[in-house]
Amino acid sequence: LLRRTLWIRRFASVVLALLVSFVVGMGWLLGSASGARFVIKQATQFAPGELNVSDVDGTLLRGLDLRAVRWQQDDFSVSVDAARIVVAPGVLLNVRRLQIRELLLRDVQIVVPERVPQDPAPALTWSLPALPDVASPIRIIVDRFELERAVFSQQRENDAPAQLARVERASFQGEWVDDEIEVQRLDIESEQGSLSLVGNVTLTPLLPIMVSVDWAIDSAAGTLVVSGNRRGYQVDHDLAKPVIADSSGIVVALTDD
To answer: How far apart are CA 168 and CA 84, in angstroms?
Structure first.
């Protein structure tokens, strides 16, 4: 009996030591700058392509500030001068939920590969293949996404990349639950104009959609509303300027099945 009691005490001491080590380790990992740098270093090693982060400040609990982030795979590259990421603390206890409190990006450069010339293809009837059910394994919530200055360019052989588009500001709020993506707010401002979108999309074979888009380009502006599924999308458009005009119709998506 004495020997059994001694073994129980030893086992309890080992369990307690492991628990203390786990708490201390998690505290270091989540609450210290060195723990945050360790996590980012592991991410750069396991990310596809080549990921580099020049500087990391902050903690996983209070938010991370990243500087000079660059990711490249083949001829596709993304660089971000500054980024801030803040996640809800509860995400650490709930593996089925990821809540991003803030994701802020500033001065983004996106370079896509040069398009390879191809022989002209014969005219084909537009067809939309049946989509599989796509469901997120976790609930993803984005409380605030802000983008400030982004340039999209295309690589040119033996020459500097050519600019395709520039976005001055963009913001997003929404969530992805199971197979439904809800866009609570998407605002984009660019040199060409502005766009505001709200709505939802369900990622099922029929692809139900309900979106409303307010747009403005130069002196023209209007509102586009699309609703329905692949059996028929109701499209309504109200042109507000330079003249007032309404139009509507139904678009039926052909399928391969």
So the answer is: 18
